[in-house]
Task: structure prediction
Amino acid sequence: MNPDLDLSLQRLIRAPRSTVWSAWTDAARLAQWFLPSPTIARVDRLEVRPGGALVTSMSDDGTVFVPHMDACFLVVEPGERLVFTNALDSTWRPTDPAPVPMTAEITFGEHPEGTQYGVLVRHGDPSARARHAELGFTEGWGGVTAQLARLVETIAGE
Result:
């Protein structure tokens, strides 16, 4: 991690790693937590493989959806790690995404109480990192991570 370029968060999720992984790789589950509530996510394409698409839309009213993310996976290590970037779209074309281009690395580690969940978001320069922080990285990514935890901890408790 480069503190001048990167943002990160860590969280213990009290659910099996396989359940947390499934919440990322199953489109129906991903749609349940991927955007801060009350905004609703729709997963338009989810191809969990290197070079595969991650395309989502979002809606504040549940009827009108607008583009949210058009990205591609760079690394997929089942049950261990996902890396995707929005600097390439789902057709591998270079993009200049708003609000910031980034590469996100999601890690799923073993923990005696469940899953050690990690997010590392890399930016190309300090101004992109600062902009992402100002836009609410901690609240946004932290909020959806809390939603993810609630979902998978509920599933694990059933």
In short: The mean pLDDT is 96.
